[in-house]
Structure formats: C-alpha cells, structure tokens
Design a protein that fits this description.
By secondary structure, the protein is mainly alpha-helical. It is 78% helix and 0% strand. It starts with a helix and ends in a 10-residue tail after the last helix.
C-alpha cells in the first residue's frame, strides 16, 4: 500500500472520530470536530499531491479518496442537522445529489471499466 492510499484510509478513520467529537457534548466539541474536519481536508490535499507528483495513482486510491471525502462531508452534514444547525432538506439534497452522481459513476464504470482519476481541482 502506498502513502496516498494510506492517507485515504486514515481519512476514513477520521470520520468516526469527527462524529464522536461533534456529538460528544464536550464544551469544546465543535472546535475539536472542526479541527478534525480541517485536518482531514489537509490530508486529502496531501494524498492527491503525492499521488500525482510521484505517479502513485492506483485504482484503490481512485475509489478510496472520493469515498473518504463523501463520508466526511455527509457525516458533517448529518451532525449539523442532528444539532439543528442546518436544515434537514439541505442534507437530503446533498444525499440525493451524491446518489445521482454515484449511479452515473456506476453506469460510466460499466461502460469504460475504469474510474477517471481526479485532478488538482477534484
């Protein structure tokens, strides 16, 4: 396993840490969760940079990287909705958008048998 994939797996592990911190009820829960979210974003930028710079792009990474991103964002939206800091309709809208994109991605994968790699902007 290369470093970019390990960073993506680490980001997946940050999802439950973010949820636990956000929902903990600790006086500093939101700043801690925000720090975890920002740290996850930085590792996302780092794994993409390393993968492109050192030609370490893999099929596993093409799958893990967007999965980790989507799980972190969706977890944040659900947590914000549970604490009534964001309306439910916005979380549902995001989920529907991701579901439509996911179905489109599966259709594309069935046709070309490949996952298009992300670039510097996503």
């Amino acid at each position: 396993m290369n470093l970019p994939n390990a960073l993506s797996l680490f980001r997946l592990a940050l999802v439950p840490a973010f949820i636990a911190a956000f929902l903990s009820g600790h006086p500093y829960a939101y700043p801690i969760a925000t720090g975890i979210f920002i740290f996850a974003g930085l590792t996302d930028m780092l794994d993409g940079y390393i993968a492109r710079k050192y030609n370490q792009i893999t099929m596993l990474g093409r799958f893990l990287d967007p999965l980790a991103d989507k799980l972190m964002v969706f977890s944040a939206l659900v947590c914000l909705t549970l604490r009534e800091l964001m309306p439910l309709w916005l979380t549902v809208l995001f989920f529907v958008k991701e579901a439509v994109q996911g179905v489109g991605g599966l259709i594309l994968f069935r046709k070309i048998r490949d996952v298009p790699p992300s670039n510097i902007i996503g």
